[in-house]
Amino acid sequence: MDVIIDGGKRIVLNKSSDGYFAGSDREVPVGVRYRFEVDDTGPWPDPCSRYQPDGPHGASLLTADDYPWEDSDWRGIALKGQVLYELHIGTFTPEGTFAAAIGKLPHLAALGVTAIELLPVAECPGKFNWGYDGVQLWAPYHVYGAPGELKRFVDRAHANGIGVILDVVYNHIGPDGNYLQKFSAHYFSARYHTDWGAALNFDGEHSHGTRDFVVGNAMYWMREFHLDGLRLDATQSIFDSSTPHILTELIQQARIAAGSRSIVVIAENEPQRGEHLLPPERGGYGLDGMWNDDFHHSARVALTGSRDGYFHDYSGRAQELLSAIKRGFLYQGQFYSWQKQCRGSPLRGLPAWSCIHFLQNHDQVGNTFMGDRVHRFGAPDRYRALTALLLLGPQTPMLFMGQEFTSSRRFKFFADHNRKLRQLVHAGRRKFLTQFSSYASSAVQALLPDPAAMESFTESKLDWGEATTHADSLQLHADLLRLRREDPVISQQRREAIDGATLSERAFVVRWFDDEHGDRLLVVNLDTQLDSPTLAEPLLAPPVGCGWVTVWSSDHPQYGGTGSVDPVDADGRWYFAANSAALLRSAPSMETKQS
Fold it and tell me: Which residues are catalytic?
């Protein structure tokens, strides 16, 4: 194996006993382009390239880790207290660059966002991509900017009090521009396969090289980019029967690489195996959090009424939403008819913030016919009520970019590939969506957007003018996040201090108990008006000597509502407006009478 420097210089590498090749030349300057020649084949780009200015098929560029960081006082983040914001760099701004995204950081800080979750930025083919076809995992996508520009984005985020978590894909490598097999046949597994291609080899012959590659990558993002954590894509497709499991090793080493900074590691895990959140000494991987698809699915059914496709096992009833708030995952080992098997595992003893709740994310928006956002499928007043449940509940909330101003822009599935792959990806997309009966018709299939079409990408870019024209929605989210942050009871995220009860099939209450600051009561009605002056439900009773004072209502005109009515009057009679949510606090009876 030799290094070929552009211009003709060759650096001969020597093979060591562990299978690696090594060599040095201190006269090669930063900024040169280079490739590797392997057994007289190639030359190929560096699998660990820090920058691919001409894309994944071009030469690698030698860089220096010399960014002048200004975040020396930043101590990282812990998951408790976070408000996550998932964004795709390419569609977050009109320019679609790291540099342009910096300009939106004050907006996110003012909103109340505390941590950004970046969709994958690894180098991939084409002019646009969701990011899950990454092939050079160490190189930021050149379309977004050079490595220094990503570092500056992180640096400025920290200056605005915002952490940055990176979505990484360690279950497969993209199909176009993947040169790993030119260097070794042992990067990929012969035992396992994923829905997206060959699985990485973490437990087979010569797997130490793959483990080094992935663990080193996680450490690299922490050390050189000062990131605040990782979101691990589809961990159910990261296969490893050895000890320690690759995820345990990766998480431990990433924390070491972060030094004194605290980082968080979140998993997407479709089976929702709660035990993975346990520390290694208790049989887990040491994860901090996991996405809760159950909450999303139930909330979507509650909003839209549709149980098509993989929403089949959800009713959207009050019981489900309340159970998600109290217990996290809804499926914790019981039968799941969509998959014809049991699904999930318990979350006993784990804090509420270890579950990530959301009403939108890139997958769930993209998994519709035209990439429409969920608020376009339901009544605005009902969506406001569900937003209150999301942002006031004890779990860690996550917003998808533009959600805060109910963006009208779609987020389509887009990926720019060569002609052959383009056809395969489009066909695969059609097949995937046939699980929804409404998308399986020939009429819909014929109109399904081509992921490789430029308009699929450009029409997914946010319209930031809507942050002004949809100011009522922005105010809704900002006010709820302020309540979440500043209310001394809600901000504790103590699931053990929360109880709840259903009032009807679509109405329920969540109650926080707090002797020091007073109780809180969130009343949610996702159906027609419920006018019941008397209700045999003890959670509606205020503490002794107290009454209820309305703190916030989703029906307030400033949020686009038609006007709010207190859910309970001075005599204790209850009224639940249709499709509404209201937050109440307990106060001494004299104060409630005066108000």
Answer: 233, 268
